[in-house]
């Protein structure tokens, strides 16, 4: 089969040395459940309530294991939400988070201090929740996103600096476009601004599953993609559409599958850590 899911139900990885197995020819991707969001009304996403029946969004975190290190991509909801049940964000909108990603990483024998790189698709609250735990990792962030998030963040009201403020002291690599994380083309950050000033997506070249792109918030719903709709809270709608065109062309050229990160229907079909994709 061209797409193989390697299930590890019978193995729990217990050491970082295992996760850094230098014999692995391609990256491995671990998917974590980092919360859920519910919206009774989706019109703020640029869709009518009749154009999609979806109201529940999955909130993921990811760990990418490469022979030369580990990358943590997107940090989910705030750890303060864990175990609190449904927490109201505003009328008609709730969030929930059952088990901390830090505990889920612990199941793999991984501590935040073991992670070499942290990169968030963008700094919105549902992607930055556990960011402050990764102060020892090199932050990979677009220069425009860094400036929006740190100087000053109050111009971007969906940013919550309390979730990521500790990253200001990290070793930081400011990006000005696409970036090859490990230098071999297998893990690449692709600049896709518009949702936020420095929004980015992640490309993985997986040997068994095949090439894959993690969408960040380029799209929130499948209907967002098919109808080319942009949320009203995006920084720049026209820039978002250009980024959609760029990534769609990349998907066609590379043959990559796109995972819309918030797509709960997709998430329900995925194997979560300690299983992995490679």
Brief overview, please?
The chain is an alpha/beta fold and 278 residues long.
Q: What does this entry look like structurally?
A:
This protein has helices at residues 16-19, 101-106, 143-150, 222-227, 237-254, 264-267, and strands spanning 5-6, 28-39, 56-66, 69-75, 87-90, 93-96, 117-119, 138-142, 172-175, 179-180, 187-191, 200-206, 210-214, 257-259, 276-277. The chain has 6 helices and 15 strands. The chain is an alpha/beta fold. The chain has an 8-stranded mixed beta sheet with strand order 5-6-2-3-4-7-8-9. Mean pLDDT is 92; it is low at 1-23.
At the fourth CATH level, what is the homologous superfamily? Ribonuclease Z/Hydroxyacylglutathione hydrolase-like
Q: So what's the CATH class? A: Alpha Beta
Give unreliable regions as ranges: 1-23
Distance between the termini: 13 Å
Major β-sheet annotation: 8 strands, mixed
* Helix amount: 10-25%
Q: Which percent band covers the strand fraction?
A: 25-35%
Q: Overall pLDDT, averaged?
A: 92
Please give the domain count.
1
- SSE order: EHEEEEEHEEHEEEEEHHEHE
Strand order of the largest sheet: 5-6-2-3-4-7-8-9
Q: What is the third-level CATH name, the topology?
A: Metallo-beta-lactamase, Chain A
Under the CATH scheme, which architecture would be assigned?
Answer: 4-Layer Sandwich
The tally of strands reads: 15
Number of helices: 6
